[in-house]
Design goal:
The complex is a heterodimer of chains A (about 375) and B (about 250). Chain A has about 375 residues and is α/β, with parallel strands linked by helices. Chain A is about 35% helix and about 25% strand. Chain A has a 6-stranded mixed β-sheet with strand order 6-7-8-3-9-10, sandwiched between helices. A 5-stranded mixed β-sheet of chain A has the order 12-11-13-14-15. In chain A, strand 9 and strand 10 form a beta hairpin. Classes of the chains: A alpha/beta (about 375), B mainly alpha (about 250). Chains A and B meet through helix 2, strand 6, helix 4 and helix 7 of A and helix 7 and helix 8 of B.
Amino acid sequence: MITLEQVTRRYGETVAVDGLTLEVENGEVCVLIGPSGCGKTTTLRMINRLIEPSAGRILIDGRDTAGIDTRKLRLSIGYAIQSVGLFPHLTVFHNIAVVPQLLHWDKQRISGRVEELLDLVGLEPEVYAGKYPGQLSGGQAQRIGVARALAADPPIMLMDEPFGAVDPLTRERLQEQFLRIQRELKKTVVLVTHDLDEAIRLADRIAIMEAGKLVQYDTPEEILSRPGNKFVRDFVGADRALKRLSRLNITRYVKPAASVGLDGKARGAISASGDRWLWVVDDKQQLIGWVDGNLLKEGISIKEAMDAGDSREIALSESATLREALSRMLGLGFMRVPVVDNSYRLIGEVSLKDVESATSEGGG
Amino acid sequence: MTGQRTGRWLALMVAMAAFLLLVANMGWWEAALRFLFPGEASVLHPRASLLVLVGEHLRLVAISSAITIAIGIPLGIWVTRPGGTDFLPIVTDVTSFGQTFPPVAVLALAVPVLGFGLTPTIVALFLYGLLPVVRNTIAGLRAVPAHLLDAAHGMGMSRTQVLFRVELPLSAQVILAGVRISVIINIGTAMIGAVIGAGGLGSPIVAGLVRDNLAFIIEGALPAALLAILADQLLANVEGSFAYAGGRA
C-alpha cells in the first residue's frame, strides 16, 4: 500500500504539489490525471524519490520512504516513462536485464526472466532479444519499456504516460495488454496520464488533480456519475454518461436471445418482449443472420426470408463494453445486438433499453 | 556490418605493416632521395635511422597523449558532475588558452624550468592536446538525453553506475573523436620537440632547415604524415567499434 500524507513540493515560490493525501491499495491501479502543470508527474516522482517532498510523508506498506536508501527503494519499484528511455547501446535483452543485473541475479535466472517477460508482452524472444532499441517500432519499444519495469517483479509500478508516444490504435492495444497483465500480476500501480479515456479504461481509482491539489479521488464509475465539483464535471466533459458506458462490461446485461435454426425450429428462449426479429443460427449454433418473425408466420421459408450477416460485423464478444454495444446499435440501426462467444456461437443479446437503464443507474 | 568492420581492421594492419617495411629499409629512401636530389652530398639524416626516429616520435606522442587522456577525460567528467559544474567555465577557458598558446612559446617558457629534452616537449604537447579531449568529453556527456538519465536513476542505478553503464558508453564515440583529434595534433606538433633535443621525426626536418637540405626535410615529413594518417584510421576504427545498431533511439 502506498500512502501519501500531506505531501507538498515547493519550487521557490511555486507550489507544485500542495498537501496531497492519497492512499493506493495493494493490487490497485491508481491513475493521476489533471491538466498539465497540476503536479501529477511531480507526485509520481516523489514516490520513488526522484524528487524529494518539501513536506509530508510517503509510506510504502507503512514504512516511511525517507528512511529507505534511494537505490534500494528504486530497485523495488518498477519505473516506466513516456519517452520509454530504452538504452540505445544495449540490446533488448540487456535493457530488460538492467535491474536484475543491479540486483546481482545469476545469468541463467536473468535470461529465463527476460524470455518470460518478452512472452508476457507478446514479443517473440528469439526475434527481439538481440535487437537494439533503434530497430524497434514505437509500440514495441513501449512494450519493452513495460517489460523492463517489470523485470525484477517489483510489487509497485510507477508509470508516467507509458502509452503516450504511440498512435491511438497501438495505444488501445497496449492498454488492453496492460489490463491483461495487470489482472494476472496484480501490481500496485500509480499511472500518470492526461488522457481521460485511458484513465477510465485502466483505473481502479482516479485521482483528479488541479494546481497541486487533489480534487476528487474515487472509482471511475463514481467520478463519472457523481463528479465532486464543477472542475471535475468540466474535466470529465459533457459526454461523461457515454464515457461511463465504457467502464461497464456487457456480461451483466446480456439476456437470452430468440433464435431460429435454418430448419425453422426455434432455438433458445422465445423473446419475451415479443419482438418480431429473430436471430438465425446454423446447426453449430453459430450466428449467420436475422429474420423477420412475421414473414415466417406467413409461411415463407427461412432461407428466403433471412438477411444474412457476418457475425464478426454485427455481433459483440463477451468482453465488449456497453459503449461498444451502443455504438454497434447506432451503426447498424438495431435496437438489439447479438452477443457471441469465441467461436461465434450465439449466447444472447443486449438491447438499447439495457443501455438506457445502465445510464440512468449511475444518476448521470 | 561486422564483416565490414573486420575488413577495415585488416586493411589497417596491412597499411601498418607496409609502413614498417618502408621505414625499416633505409636503402630504399637513400636510392629514392638520391634520385630526386642528385646534387646533395648526403640525403639521409646521419643522427639515427628512420626506424629509431619513428620510435622516438611515437614515444613522445604516446606519453603526451596518455597524460592528456588520463587528465582530460576525468576533467571533462568532473565538470559535468553536480559537484564540479561550478568549475566548468574555468576548465573550458584554461584548456582553450592551452590551445591558443603556441607550443613553441610553451617550449621557450618551459626550458628554463624543466631543461632540454623530453619533459618540456611533453608538457607542451599535453597542454596543446588537452582542449579537444576535454571539450569532446563535456559535449559527449551533455548530449546524453535527459530521459535516459531519468530512466537510469529511476531504475535504481547509483551515480557511478549511471556514468559507467549509460553516460560513458553513449558518449564514447564523441569522446574518442576528441582523442583522435588530440593525437593527430600531437603527431604534428611533436616535430617541434626536435628543436630542444627531444628527438623524433622533427630531427631531420630541423637539420634540413638549418642546412637547407630538402632531402632531410622529406625524410622527416613524409613518415610523419603517413604516421598521422595511420593513427587517424586506427582511432577511427576504435571509434567505430562503439557504434550500435539502429543508431540513437
